[in-house]
Amino acid sequence: MRHPKLSPSWLRFFIVVILVLGVFFRFFNLDHKIYWHDEVYTSFRAAGFTGQEIGEEIFQNQVISPQELQKYQRLKPGSTPVDTIKSLAVEDPQHPPLYFLMARFWMQAFGSSSTASRTLPALLSLLALVSMYALGRELFTSRIAALLATALLALSPFDILFAQIARQYSFLTVCIIASSFFLLRALRLPTWYNWGLYALAITLGLYSQPFFGLTLSGHIVYMLLAHLLAKNPKMRAEDSQNLPGNQNRFAISNLIFFGLAIATSLILYSPWLFVLKSNYQRILDTTSWVKGGDVLYRVKLWILSFTALFLDLDFGFNNIWTYIPRLLILLLIAAAIYQCRYTSRKTWLFILTAIFVPFLILAVSDFVLETQRSAVSRYLISCFPGVQLAVGYFLATKILNRQRFWRGVMVVLITCSVVSCTVSAFSNTWWSNIPSHFNAEMARRVNAVSSPVLLSDGGYDGTNLGDLLSLSYLLDDDVQLVLFGQPPKLEALDLKSLLSGNSETFLFRPSPQLVQAIESKYGQLVQVVPTGGLWQLKRL
Question: Which of 145, 401, 472, 510 could staple 66 via S-S, CB 3.0–4.6 A?
Answer without folding.
Answer: 472
